[in-house]
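User: Quick one: structure for sequence A, then sequence B.

Assistant: Sequence A:
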Amino acid sequence: MPLRWGIVGTGSIADQRMAPALNRVTNTELIAVCSRSMERAKSFATKHRIEYAYDSLSKMLQNQELDVVYIATPNSVHAQQTIEAAYAGKHVLCEKPMALTVRDAELMIEACNKNKVRLGVDFQNRYHPAHIEAQRNIQSGMVGKIYLAKAQYCSDRFRGYWRKHKGWRNDPIMAGAGALVNSGVHPIDLLRFLVRSEIEEVRALTDEKLPKYPVDDMVYVIMEFENGMRAVVISGILVPRSDNDVVLYGSKAKITCKGTVGVRLQGEFLLEGNSLNTRMVFSTDDPMSALYTPVVEAFNKCIDENTEPEISGYDGLKMVRIVDAILESSRQDRTIKITR
């Protein structure tokens, strides 16, 4: 029997990426959508061939056909909605950031564990084939000990938007932060995935302290990992023509994933060493959902096999702690150790 999904929130991520992905994965049915506006819910349902439209999460959760809920709402309500879904017996795939506070993230995990449902977080960059190839080479020892990494994810898509327009993304109470949680968490999580090591401490600078900046537009982070690797991450919305790359410098080889960080299945994988020279090129005519089908497939698999998700609530909790440390470092102008 197929797993039946519902979407909470009708914004661009749900509309352009996750709904198309859900409609293409085998043994999966997208049967419900919920929005605060019934008009938006019905319009979304018509566009994506969805049977049920709701203007209330509690009403949607009463649907006995529903197995899984994908939450793509403002950051501040992720915790409340996840906990409500868990107590209704629904598995939850949540957009990043999973929560705005460590305690909320812990409560989400507790609710899902108590009700025996799975909790996953959408970090789609892990599924880019260039990043999977990079991790394979790193874990095989091909690259040697990695001393330095750098990753960037920037654009100018929202340049000036957050300061000129009112909305939840430039409201620190609803969003928690700006570029850091909107885009910066992706290269940070990607580095954790690639080297399979946790971040011990961070030194960061953001521009949230500048006049009239409700949230950060740019964030710059230096990180030290448990395995001794140091990394630099830059993310934000003020950089046109950004090189959204991840580069890792090892004792035996250098890996470059060129133009691969973001939401598009494109770019190059390069492995360069004394006797190594590998290049792979990736492109697609379907950039908006190509990375999201493996997110759905992996989450379906963990439900079917009753295993922990590949990107679990614990990964989401760790990212909340990292975000807290980055903001604290910038505000206090000092290095911050990541709490456990």
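Sequence B:
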Amino acid sequence: MTKTEYLLRELRSSLWVKPTIMGLAAVAWVSIAYGCAEYLSDTMKINIEREILINLLGILASTMLTVATFSVAAMVSAFSAVSTTATPRATRIVMQDRSTQNSLTSFLSAFIYAIVALVAISITTYGQGGRLLLFAGYCFMVGWVLISFVRWVDRVSKLGRMGDTLERVEEACREAFSSPEAMGTLGAKPVSGDPVSGAGVKPDVIGYLQNIDISALDAIAGEIGTTIRVMERPGAFVDPHDSLVTVVDCDALEDDIEDRIRAAFQMGDERRVGSDPRFGLILLSEIADRALSPAVNDPGTAIAVLGIQIRLMETWSNHINETNEIEFENVEVAALDPEDLLDDAFTAISRDGAAMFEVGSRIQKSLAVLARIGNERLTNAARRHSKLALEQAELSLKTETHKKLIRKLSEAVG
């Protein structure tokens, strides 16, 4: 995606954006009510007395302050639970839950509207028509808050629980795994042939590569009449000694061209699931790994994670076989390797679940499913991980009976 699209997506996922927008809308309605007051007749049948309206707005303001405080406290507690029981890296995904954001938005917006309307009606004269518009805004806010509160009661009962966290992480991962561009070559040409020579562009900061604006790189390559090969995919940790791109058959680049190329790469301190599918598998693996620790001893969560990983890999296999249209002819990007995907998904679970027969057997069954999907590279990767998991199980399992069963399941993988 372009840099602008990426930044807008990050902005929409922030907790403060929706409350700010709706708060500004509430202020705008109070201003509209004041501006329209002189155009509305003072002989209307509905007359909201100023004192009554002040009392209603005061009740709304005090109530929403309490509810908003309670909601924020519940969210902080839930996020802390996610960090403790699942993995700290999953907290950001849970924070992006739309239901939670919408509920918080309604509470804060109602509070802001009540405060602004109270101040406005206290310092100026609105007239009968203006008060009616303020009352209409009050009725809308109360209705919105009631609906949001009912939904919030149901949502807060699940927020922070392991099942809900896994659901949120799977939902976030599925978007990336369903995209041929994100899982493929980002809309560019696939890398082919031997390594190329040319001018390299290095990053000027240390951090994770979060997004690449392939369209900007394509435009630059078209201007200078060459091909740009991207050396790193989103998720890579780079430093000023690494090359972000190689400009093919170009000995040197002008400083402004180098700056434009660097600007196409969004750097940050953390990885992002939306543009980095491997990070999603790592998150799931971390959740399973913590569940397998002696302090938690919850193999059921690890088994649930394996089910999610299989569904994601099947989604990737179904979409990667679709026609991945090349939008940017002047840029080359290497596709994701199934070996890397399965390394991220199964390495930690196979290692720390090797002593548990129920986990080891589910790993072999999961890899058997992946081997039968029909993707040759994925099949080979599944068979390699099956052998690795078998070796670890034979070293860790206590009984020969369980070892024989694991061997039999591994043979089914191929």
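The chain has three domains: 3-160, 184-268, 277-325+335-413. The mean pLDDT is 87.

User: Thanks, that's what I needed.
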